[in-house]
């Protein structure tokens, strides 16, 4: 079962990665050949994360494993991390985001009417989310910076 | 979405879907980014935004059938996984600096929770249901979107909420934070450096706009403002997911249940 899963994940990641590499080329002028090693590394990190999620019997999202593995393999104490950083830097963050949102647009279509119902209220709430986060952060920073005597 | 029910089997064979996305990506990336300056910030029009719109329009054409739309959903999770792997390898090399940035910056990340106290009650009061959970559990950047997709899926109410927040933040975030940061720093008794740290809560462009208008208001503090904002942004990127998993989302759920129960009585 796990093997079958790995096969499906790999195929999809490769298709997605291929689209992202072409976008990486069209939008950021990085030749696909130059970005392939970085994409392979990113795909392997994802696979490792998905596999861990299946093997470890606690309810922990796979994306959490993936981001930990990403940090671990690229931190300066890890042998060979310079290569990983060098390769993956050829894959632009935004080039990965564009295909995600293209798939998302097609998927969201089905609940478009529900989306429209959010309407103006979502603008009010979204503004408050940003204001709340910004002020909350500033308040805590103020308390700690005063406590440390920095300000 | 439960990962055990294997919604991904055979999805790679949906060539119609992949081809549509492929063409969309080429077109949107070729168009490129436009930034429209407004006050201290800019309105950012990114290829990913056009991609979302084209995807939506495609859904309403005969090119996309119900099946493609359903198949697209689990692929988003895989795409977000790649994005988070990339964010991981961005954080890795600067891990020593993140550690050095110290407890002040780490604790300040909990300011993210300010949104739950301020925005969640208003959202419920405005009549939003489960959408409110996705929208207000965090500032809604990539890691937070990933978490909600992983747990609820994109066509769930929570998924719609977090996507609305993500899109708003992507398009208007920089303008919004750029406008309020200079304003709040001049009218509130809080120190500009506290606001500098707060500038890092969202995306890179939000940080640039927010810290930019702080620098304009307090030019003598420029280097410190930029350093604090940058360190805080790096940290948001590294800890945002964890604050959401362990504190933000559970707390939002709790307050949501409490408030809706009271309301229904």
Automatic annotation (TrEMBL), chain A:
<feature type="transmembrane region" description="Helical">
    <location>
        <begin position="118"/>
        <end position="145"/>
    </location>
</feature>
<feature type="transmembrane region" description="Helical">
    <location>
        <begin position="6"/>
        <end position="28"/>
    </location>
</feature>
<feature type="transmembrane region" description="Helical">
    <location>
        <begin position="35"/>
        <end position="52"/>
    </location>
</feature>
<keyword id="KW-0472">Membrane</keyword>
<keyword id="KW-1133">Transmembrane helix</keyword>
<feature type="transmembrane region" description="Helical">
    <location>
        <begin position="91"/>
        <end position="112"/>
    </location>
</feature>
<feature type="transmembrane region" description="Helical">
    <location>
        <begin position="58"/>
        <end position="79"/>
    </location>
</feature>
<keyword id="KW-0812">Transmembrane</keyword>
<protein>
    <recommendedName>
        <fullName>DUF340 domain-containing protein</fullName>
    </recommendedName>
</protein>
Automatic annotation (TrEMBL), chain B:
<keyword id="KW-0812">Transmembrane</keyword>
<dbReference type="Pfam" id="PF11299">
    <property type="entry name" value="DUF3100"/>
</dbReference>
<dbReference type="InterPro" id="IPR021450">
    <property type="entry name" value="DUF3100"/>
</dbReference>
<feature type="transmembrane region" description="Helical">
    <location>
        <begin position="42"/>
        <end position="63"/>
    </location>
</feature>
<feature type="transmembrane region" description="Helical">
    <location>
        <begin position="225"/>
        <end position="249"/>
    </location>
</feature>
<keyword id="KW-1133">Transmembrane helix</keyword>
<feature type="transmembrane region" description="Helical">
    <location>
        <begin position="193"/>
        <end position="218"/>
    </location>
</feature>
<feature type="transmembrane region" description="Helical">
    <location>
        <begin position="75"/>
        <end position="95"/>
    </location>
</feature>
<feature type="transmembrane region" description="Helical">
    <location>
        <begin position="110"/>
        <end position="128"/>
    </location>
</feature>
<keyword id="KW-0472">Membrane</keyword>
<protein>
    <recommendedName>
        <fullName>DUF3100 family protein</fullName>
    </recommendedName>
</protein>
<feature type="transmembrane region" description="Helical">
    <location>
        <begin position="17"/>
        <end position="36"/>
    </location>
</feature>
<feature type="transmembrane region" description="Helical">
    <location>
        <begin position="164"/>
        <end position="187"/>
    </location>
</feature>
């Amino acid at each position: 079962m796990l093997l079958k899963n790995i096969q499906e994940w790999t195929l999809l990641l490769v298709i997605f990665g291929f689209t992202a590499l072409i976008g990486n080329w069209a939008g950021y002028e990085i030749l696909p050949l130059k970005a392939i090693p970085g994409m392979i590394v990113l795909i392997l990190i994802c696979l490792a994360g998905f596999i861990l999620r299946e093997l470890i019997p606690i309810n922990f999202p796979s994306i959490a494993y993936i981001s930990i593995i990403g940090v671990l393999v690229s931190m300066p104490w890890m042998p060979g991390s310079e290569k990983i950083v060098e390769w993956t830097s050829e894959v632009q963050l935004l080039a990965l985001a564009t295909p995600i949102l293209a798939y998302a647009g097609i998927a969201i279509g089905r609940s478009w009417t529900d989306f429209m119902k959010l309407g103006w209220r979502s603008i009010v709430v979204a503004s408050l989310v940003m204001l709340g986060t910004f002020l909350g952060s500033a308040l805590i920073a103020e308390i700690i910076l005063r406590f440390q005597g920095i300000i | 979405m439960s990962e055990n029910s294997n919604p991904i089997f055979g999805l790679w064979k949906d060539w119609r879907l992949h081809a549509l996305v492929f063409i969309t990506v080429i077109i949107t990336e070729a168009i490129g980014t436009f930034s429209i300056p407004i006050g201290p910030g800019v309105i950012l029009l990114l290829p990913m935004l056009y991609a979302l719109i084209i995807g939506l329009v495609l859904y309403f054409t005969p090119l996309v059938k119900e099946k493609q739309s359903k198949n697209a959903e689990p692929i988003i999770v895989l795409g977000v996984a790649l994005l988070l792997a990339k964010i991981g390898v961005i954080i890795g090399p600067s891990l020593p600096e993140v550690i050095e940035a110290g407890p002040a910056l780490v604790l300040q990340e909990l300011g993210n929770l300010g949104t739950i106290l301020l925005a969640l009650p208003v959202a419920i009061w405005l009549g939003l249901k489960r959408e409110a959970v996705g929208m207000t559990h965090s500032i809604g950047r990539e890691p937070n979107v990933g978490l909600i997709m992983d747990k609820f899926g994109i066509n769930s109410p929570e998924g719609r909420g977090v996507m609305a927040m993500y899109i708003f933040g992507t398009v208007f975030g920089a303008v919004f934070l750029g406008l309020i940061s200079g304003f709040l720093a001049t009218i509130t008794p809080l120190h500009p450096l506290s606001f500098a740290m707060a500038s890092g809560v969202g995306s890179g462009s939000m940080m640039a706009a927010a810290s930019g208008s702080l620098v304009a208001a307090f030019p003598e503090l420029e280097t410190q403002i930029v350093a604090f904002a940058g360190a805080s942004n790096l940290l948001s990127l590294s800890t945002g997911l964890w604050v959401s998993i362990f504190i933000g989302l559970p707390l939002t759920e709790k307050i949501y249940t409490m408030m809706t129960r009271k309301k229904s009585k």
